[in-house]
TrEMBL record:
<keyword id="KW-0545">Nucleotide biosynthesis</keyword>
<feature type="binding site">
    <location>
        <position position="153"/>
    </location>
    <ligand>
        <name>Zn(2+)</name>
    </ligand>
</feature>
<keyword id="KW-0479">Metal-binding</keyword>
<dbReference type="Pfam" id="PF00406">
    <property type="entry name" value="ADK"/>
</dbReference>
<feature type="binding site">
    <location>
        <begin position="136"/>
        <end position="137"/>
    </location>
    <ligand>
        <name>ATP</name>
    </ligand>
</feature>
<feature type="region of interest" description="LID">
    <location>
        <begin position="126"/>
        <end position="163"/>
    </location>
</feature>
<feature type="binding site">
    <location>
        <position position="36"/>
    </location>
    <ligand>
        <name>AMP</name>
    </ligand>
</feature>
<keyword id="KW-0808">Transferase</keyword>
<keyword id="KW-0547">Nucleotide-binding</keyword>
<comment type="similarity">
    <text>Belongs to the adenylate kinase family.</text>
</comment>
<feature type="domain" description="Adenylate kinase active site lid">
    <location>
        <begin position="127"/>
        <end position="162"/>
    </location>
</feature>
<feature type="binding site">
    <location>
        <begin position="57"/>
        <end position="59"/>
    </location>
    <ligand>
        <name>AMP</name>
    </ligand>
</feature>
<dbReference type="InterPro" id="IPR006259">
    <property type="entry name" value="Adenyl_kin_sub"/>
</dbReference>
<dbReference type="InterPro" id="IPR007862">
    <property type="entry name" value="Adenylate_kinase_lid-dom"/>
</dbReference>
<feature type="binding site">
    <location>
        <position position="199"/>
    </location>
    <ligand>
        <name>ATP</name>
    </ligand>
</feature>
<protein>
    <recommendedName>
        <fullName>Adenylate kinase</fullName>
        <ecNumber>2.7.4.3</ecNumber>
    </recommendedName>
</protein>
<feature type="region of interest" description="NMP">
    <location>
        <begin position="30"/>
        <end position="59"/>
    </location>
</feature>
Amino acid sequence: MNILFMGPPGAGKGTQAERIVSEFGIPHISTGDAFRLAKSQATPLGLEAQKYMDQGLLVPDDITIGIVRDRLMQPDCEQGFLLDGFPRTTAQAEALDEIMESMGRKLDHVIDLQVDRNLLLARLTGRRICKSCGATYHVMFNPPQAEGTCDKCGGELYQRADDNEEKVGTRLDEYTNKTAPLLDYYRAKGILRQVDGEQEIDSVTANIHSLLRGNA
Ligand code: AP5
Ligand code: ZN
């Protein structure tokens, strides 16, 4: 199954993706995670991406499309994949169509997680992430058992550099101007499914499951 997760920053794409990929046994491909990894390793790609990410801006299309193209060619994507945070512009969506067509494949589901802008700000500024395993928490909505420590692996939790009020504002504007128009692109293809992302994390997962299993 080839799945795409859309939705504004903080909608819960990463949280839900972790759960869905473990159930369906497909790789989770997050362009944001790929850029953060490259940044932490100080590769030329990471240093270039950092210039944009640190301002809350989108990384240029040519860089982003190249990464996704290479990743989708890997053998572990043959049985399907979950793309999280890509595409984010019309050029990226068109490039993805070309990549899929060249591989003789198609997107099965585009899941759009819907959350009000005010709630997104609270979610992002309270988010904490495990340095070791990448698990995501929230200081109020999904707290770890011991403050600052990952429940799953005992790793240390940190706050992302772009999760402050100013950067979140820029990221939300980038989403509204460049990414939200893609919803119509996928609606026209008849594969867009919208999910209320404001419910409890478990309820959102249950709704996504129903859609993917064809029970909704
Ligand atoms: P990226 O890493 O993709 O960030 P994003 O889209 O801003 O999304 P987030 O990871 O912030 O949010 P999420 O929806 O995954 O929410 P989460 O599950 O963590 O991109 C970062 C940057 O990289 C971009 O700004 C850009 O510079 C660059 N980039 C990436 N892809 C690109 C592309 N294609 N083109 C160009 N540039 C690109 O949840 C958020 C919080 O809420 C967590 O604390 C969580 O615990 C909590 N939460 C989740 N669900 C619920 C719920 N149902 N109830 C209560 N709390 C919840
Ligand atoms: Zn961990």
